Amino acid sequence: MSIFNFTDEQSLGEVRSVETSRITVRVTDGQRLQKARVGRLVAIQSMGDEWLIGIIERVWRHPVELPTLPEADPSADLTGVPQEENGVSISLVGTYRARDGQRKNTFTRAVFILPEINRSVFPIEEKSLEDFMGILSASSKADAAAPLKVGTYTLDGKASAYIDGDKLFQRHAALLGSTGSGKSFTVASILEQSAQLPHANIVVLDLHGEYSSMKFAAHYRIAGIGDLKAKKEGAIFLPFWLLTYDEMQSLFVDRSEESAPNQASELMKQVVELKKKSIEGLGKQDLLDGFTVDTPVPYRLADLIEAIAEKDREMVQGSKGEKQGPLFGKLTRFLNRISVKTKDRRYAFMYQAPAEYETYEALHELAEKLLGTGIKQDGVNPGIKIIDFSEVPSDILPVVVGLVARIVYQIQFWSSPGADGDARHPIVLVCDEAHLYLPSSAASTGPLEKRALENFERIAKEGRKYGVGLMVVSQRPSDVSTTILSQCSNIISLRLANKTDQAVVKQLLPESLEGLMEVLPTLDVGEAVVVGDATLLPTRIKMAKPKHEPRSATIPFWTRWATPKAEVDLIAAVENMRRQSRAQED
């Protein structure tokens, strides 16, 4: 039996025009027009127990210009002429069937048959709305082994909103919203539920340490200056030998210099030679069969600098005695640049890694930290990994973030797919503050940003095949690579006040749903428009708050000025700045 049982008196109006996914309704009664509210759901019977479901996009009332009458007929009766025209524009979003084969009360996003002209349109409200939202919740929950609850529907606060976790991650997702709209606690809520799965596998790229309060996750951080004397728990070093040749070029070679081609060529030559020597010294002759300049094997940075320095001062035998070599003096600035960077303690996590990171097994251990899962202990799920990048200098941040993403993708790529081709254990990268290292093509991107972009764009395009998903989180979607955003089949958009950002989000959606995005600047904190493959119905959802809230709450300026939370120790702050470490705060 259908959940819809409308009477003629409940009708909103009649269908007057039909397009591919948008219809126009004529409302003859001004009182009925009051039932039409933007964002409300409507139902149109197509055949039998099959109903089309739509969302009201626009409501209008236009005055009708009365006909001009000849002066000879002043007594004409105009009471029967309508003085206004009422209408509603509706976007079709799916089909409800009371019976679909053996199943009852189903909803699908497919639109099988467009409505006929003059069909009545009914607003879904009260009991009908409650029943329909209940069907959505039940369907979403039943389709998943472990349903992912994201909140409640704005239309009916009693109905829980579930989304398909498989489709959310395997087809990539974008979580967008202005500062203070609720992005961080939405991420935290999803992480909390993911942590309930025994073999969850998520890496959160945390740029500001916002998720350090997530007690259910394993916490790591890119090592800071304070870890040089004594490496503390959770510190990760990323030794320079993990860098690809292109990444090393972007760090060390200044393309504006006349000798840049010589620098790049010599860098490649010496890296190849040192890696081959390292492989031979390790007794791993089998690696030479597939060897490239990017093969990640350890070698000493001091050896690389010395080899390049020899070329910079090399003298060769000429016809009249010794003369300057072909690269004599042309690599001096290159060497100075490498020396300055490698001695800068802010980059110690890459150039001054402890001795154990020079071993062949160092990459094995790093892979275990980034991609490993395990049994939950003391309430911590080791598969949920939060990596704090807050101490990484901003100028090198894109390369470091891109390096982590590339290692994850490449290890996953080279994992054995198994006999059935489906044995890889999937992993998701949560890219917090994505606009900082995944800039749009419109922005001026230097060589560092380009290297990171290349890694993430490859994941966006090909990651699904190898079990690598992306969740892009940003407050400025207009500054994020359009190539990456266009690969996100799921959009969770919280409040966006900027028109440029709103325009970007609209471009990511089908034309039929653009009207739904008109509400973006008016959304409440924590309220989102959810559209994509992971949700049955594109609609507004009040996102659930997590138990462990992230440390991203905006500091209340006026309140703190009235009543400070604690006495400010400026001397300690200055000394932390000098040390480039907050270690003394702990």
TrEMBL record:
<dbReference type="Pfam" id="PF01935">
    <property type="entry name" value="DUF87"/>
</dbReference>
<feature type="domain" description="Helicase HerA-like C-terminal">
    <location>
        <begin position="421"/>
        <end position="530"/>
    </location>
</feature>
<dbReference type="GO" id="GO:0003677">
    <property type="term" value="F:DNA binding"/>
</dbReference>
<keyword id="KW-0378">Hydrolase</keyword>
<keyword id="KW-0547">Nucleotide-binding</keyword>
<dbReference type="GO" id="GO:0004386">
    <property type="term" value="F:helicase activity"/>
</dbReference>
<dbReference type="GO" id="GO:0016787">
    <property type="term" value="F:hydrolase activity"/>
</dbReference>
<dbReference type="InterPro" id="IPR027417">
    <property type="entry name" value="P-loop_NTPase"/>
</dbReference>
<dbReference type="InterPro" id="IPR033186">
    <property type="entry name" value="HerA_C"/>
</dbReference>
<dbReference type="InterPro" id="IPR008571">
    <property type="entry name" value="HerA-like"/>
</dbReference>
<keyword id="KW-0238">DNA-binding</keyword>
<feature type="domain" description="Helicase HerA central">
    <location>
        <begin position="149"/>
        <end position="405"/>
    </location>
</feature>
<keyword id="KW-0067">ATP-binding</keyword>
<keyword id="KW-0347">Helicase</keyword>
<dbReference type="GO" id="GO:0005524">
    <property type="term" value="F:ATP binding"/>
</dbReference>
<dbReference type="Pfam" id="PF05872">
    <property type="entry name" value="HerA_C"/>
</dbReference>
<keyword id="KW-0413">Isomerase</keyword>
<protein>
    <submittedName>
        <fullName>ATP-binding protein</fullName>
    </submittedName>
</protein>
<dbReference type="InterPro" id="IPR002789">
    <property type="entry name" value="HerA_central"/>
</dbReference>
